[in-house]
């Protein structure tokens, strides 16, 4: 009974969506079946032109991606790898449009079944333009994203599964696929495992301590400056934001001179007169880490201070007046009013601060190039993962190991950011606040 009622609603039951979809296996035929003649002819010509022009490139690229070359000194495996990745991108693009072509024919046939009238050429162009206009606007950015971001990332990911190193560099040698061997080496060989554990542990300590201190200092200063008893607030805020106005690399280079063991002002003018000794800021890994954390707190707190200052000014004074009437002390007002509001408004940006410091290459490299050196290891005493990857790539030419570590680094940052953003209250519905 229900089937009969459904069939009565079909104005044109002889027109079958399944037939249109099957005909669209050859692009354009399904549209011709739906009497979309201009659209069908255009799709057939576009797909045919793409297949004729790109078939040889895609097929040879995919073969080269498997073999990575066959003749040493003549074939460059890096070129084969690049062409193979481009072939995968073009093939993915082709398959996506091919799938959309089938779905378009199926949906049009479904609408024709229900009585939809096929528009004329003018209406068809107008409808197509209205539908595709947003995609036309974003297409330049999408293509730029694919070839500037996605392509290099895929190249790096593929390198992690090859044997590309200083002693096996093309075109003199051909690369070969080694599977997960690089990841196994990272955790099974003593030298690599020790270096990875040391660098990862320092990266986590660096990220948590430096970022938390800069946030705590910024919140402390913002609360003090926001106090009604403080005068010259504009001047104080301007002074606190000045470190943010100076380019970071300039500040880091200045601090590297100030912390110099031999002629730095911190040793000569402060430490030695007071304690009759000199601290080996650049020669001892522990003191280098202390200096790096202090510098990062100096560089990072102005931005967070500006955020907190704006949020504190937006909190209604009625909340604090109600708390005073209830007899709340300063700590209770901070715990129940100030801190929740500040965190709710700035939590996503604070998470970005942790992610930024996790990959903060500039300060590590410019201050002491990740040193001091550690005997028997490819990583310096203050290298974090990103600076270690840089050293492996440009100093040691261990491209395969650098790519493997980069994948692990990317997964760690993405996982942390994803779960933290999901837990952030500012991303939930207002009713859950």
Quick overview of this protein structure:
The protein has 17 helices and no strands. With 433 residues, it is mostly helical.
How does this structure look, described?
- The protein has helices at 2-8, 17-23, 29-33, 37-67, 77-113, 121-159, 181-188, 190-226, 233-245, 248-258, 265-275, 285-314, 317-325, 330-358, 361-368, 385-395, 399-423.
- With 433 residues, it is mainly alpha-helical.
- The chain folds into two domains: 2-168, no CATH class; 182-432, MetI-like (MetI-like fold), CATH 1.10.3720.
- α6 crosses α17 (399-423).
- The two termini are 50 Å apart.
- This is Maltose/maltodextrin transport system permease protein.
- Keywords: Cell membrane, Membrane, Sugar transport, Transmembrane, Transmembrane helix, Transport.
- It holds the Pfam family BPD_transp_1.
């Amino acid at each position: 009974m229900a089937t009969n009622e459904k069939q009565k609603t079909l104005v044109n039951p002889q027109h079958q969506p399944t037939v249109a979809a099957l005909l669209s296996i050859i692009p354009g035929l399904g549209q011709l079946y739906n009497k979309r003649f201009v659209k069908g002819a255009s799709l057939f010509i576009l797909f045919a032109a793409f297949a004729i022009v790109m078939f040889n490139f895609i097929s040879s690229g995919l073969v080269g991606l498997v073999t990575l070359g066959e003749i040493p000194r003549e074939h460059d495996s890096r070129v084969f790898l690049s062409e193979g990745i481009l072939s995968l991108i073009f093939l993915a693009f082709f398959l996506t449009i091919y799938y959309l072509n089938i779905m378009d024919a199926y949906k049009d046939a479904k609408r024709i079944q229900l009585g939809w009238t096929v528009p004329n050429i003018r209406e068809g162009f107008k409808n197509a333009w209205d539908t595709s206009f947003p995609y036309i606007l974003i297409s330049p950015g999408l293509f730029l994203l694919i070839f500037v971001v996605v392509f290099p990332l895929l190249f790096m990911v593929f390198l992690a599964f090859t044997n590309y190193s200083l002693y096996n560099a093309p075109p003199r040698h051909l690369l070969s696929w080694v599977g997960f061997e690089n990841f196994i080496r990272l955790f099974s060989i003593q030298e690599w495992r020790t270096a990875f554990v040391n660098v990862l542990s320092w990266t986590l300590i660096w990220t948590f301590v430096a970022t938390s201190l800069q946030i705590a200092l910024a919140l402390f200063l913002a609360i003090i400056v926001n106090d009604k008893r403080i005068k010259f607030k504009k001047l104080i805020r301007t002074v606190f934001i000045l470190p943010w106005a100076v380019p970071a690399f300039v500040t880091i280079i200045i601090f590297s001179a100030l912390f110099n063991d031999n002629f730095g002002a911190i040793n000569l003018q402060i430490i030695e007169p007071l304690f009759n000794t000199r601290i080996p800021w650049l020669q001892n890994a522990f003191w280098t880490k202390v200096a790096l954390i202090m510098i990062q707190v100096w560089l990072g707190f102005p931005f967070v201070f500006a955020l907190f200052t704006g949020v504190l000014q937006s909190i209604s004074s009625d909340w604090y007046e109600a708390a005073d009437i209830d007899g709340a002390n300063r700590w209770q007002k901070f715990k129940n009013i100030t801190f929740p509001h500040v965190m709710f408004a700035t939590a996503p940006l604070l998470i970005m601060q942790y992610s930024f410091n996790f990959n903060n290459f500039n300060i590590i490299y410019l201050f002491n190039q990740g040193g001091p050196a550690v005997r028997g290891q490819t990583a310096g005493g203050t290298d974090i993962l990103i600076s270690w990857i840089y050293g492996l790539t440009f100093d040691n030419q261990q491209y395969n190991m650098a790519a493997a570590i980069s994948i692990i680094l990317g997964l760690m940052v993405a996982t942390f950011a994803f779960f933290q953003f999901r837990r952030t209250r500012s991303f939930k519905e207002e009713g859950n606040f």
